[in-house]
Amino acid sequence: MDLDVVGYWTELKLHIIKDYAIEYAKILSKQPYIKYSFIDGFAGAGKHISKTTGEEIDGSPTVVLKIQPPFSHYHFIDLDGNRADMLKQLASGRSDVTIYQGDCNKVILEKVFPKCHYSDYRRALCLLDPYKLDPNWEVVETAGKMKSVEIFINFMIMDAKQNILFNDPYKALPSQIERMNSFWGDDSWREVSYVKQKGLFGDIEEKAPDFSIATAYQKRLREVAGFKYVPSPVPMRNSKGAIIYYLFFASNNETGERIVKAIFNKYRRGKI
Fold this sequence. Notes:
Distance between the termini: 29 Å
Order of helices and strands: EHEEEHEHEHEHEHHHEEHEEH
CATH architecture: 3-Layer(aba) Sandwich
Structural class: alpha/beta
């Protein structure tokens, strides 16, 4: 199959994930009674083609499989059967890797998170890295309530702007509104995505700035999902400077937040 061609922002994200996963594994490997997993909800084929160089580069599954010390287990999920087959080839002969073909929302809730309970001395680092507005809020909120799962999640603001967050708040199709509701958890996104301004003929609604919407999602991760630590996200931009998505980190571990803040600051200017 043809590999995905990815932009510079994806390479930047992979460096961030790698840097944190290394520190995460170092810390937990010193606690032998704890088992810790890596979960990739949109794992892809394990390889990409760099748009910048035209060369093949490692995707997130390949990146984390090379990290030392290793994770106790790896859960790679992809909806596409061909990508799942490539992941199986990547993990051939390894008993510490499980490949799932299916909807990550269902797979994570039904098959993966039940293996990550805090009371069972289990921990997990979960990457939710979709191309569109996914996953469902239920996955994110469940991770927050479990206290054992840290997440990196992309808020695909460009997808939202192209399909939902129009200047006219009533222009979006019902199916697109439902997608946003699923990602956000309810329709409260409307309250933060539009602001009322005084117009010549009365109040008019205008779209709020992107970062204020991202800040509202950050607040939601804390106050609704229950994550104690949610540092300011990193805006990922294309070659024209437009923000493609915001990369969030959410955790109940103060050390995790401290490490991620340092990593985010390292890459915040968009340079590897």
